[in-house]
Amino acid sequence: MKKLVLFSAMVVAMLALVSCSSGGSGPADALKKYATALQDGNYEKFVDGINFSNATSDQQEEAREGFVALVKEKGAKEFEKKGGFKGFEILSEEIAEDGNSAVVKFKQIYGNGEEEESEQKMVKVDGKWLMDIGK
Question: CB–CB of 89/106 below 8 Å?
């Protein structure tokens, strides 16, 4: 009986660890998903990760279309100059006490070997982490 209780406790602990580490629902996970879309050339999916919640529905659609065009035109050319967008690495994430905003520090890796560190503000909107590009 003692072994059964110990085994059950170990299973519960393992499940708790797995659910915490692989939930994929934090701001860093969301940013990595958006960066992967950008790397794959899926500009629409990348732009879907931008917070447009302060705009009306019509303004949101117009802004999305504008950002997709901008990223296709300017972003793709910039990546091309650097030998392509080869990788993305999360360096850290800091979630605010209220749990609704965060700052994710990351590194972009380009085909020419160049690396660039930056940070992205993230905001939780309707339970989903989005990139905050506001002022």
Answer: yes
